[in-house]
Amino acid sequence: MLPPAETSGVEVGRRALLLSIGALALTLLVPVMGLALGVFSIIVCFRAWRTQSAKRRPVIMPAVGLLVSIVSIVMAASVAWFQMYFSGELTAYTECMKGAGTATSQQACVTGLEQAMERRLPFIPKGSLRFPFAP
Prior knowledge:
The protein is mostly helical. The protein contains 5 helices and no strands.
């Protein structure tokens, strides 16, 4: 049996950065999985940072990876909160769009979603929430 291979410091930092970028990309597709991968990438970044510091090598890649991981976690948590808070409104919108066969009925679904979200957000005046494009 061979002993474990020694990885270079650059490779450890690169892995941490790539994992963080993967967490950010996954956040855009599946926010909950992006959140989990973001937490995992923070752990990897801290370990890479510690390894680089012990060898007296630059820690720029683990530091950038840590920042990207934090951004992905904040984004994923925000999207997950949004989806949970507006789950009823989004479900009603999805059901409405299933039966919408014309552009007018689709616009009615979007208007209904805007009005439902205004009711959930008391600090937004009635009739002021307009989506620039249909969700």
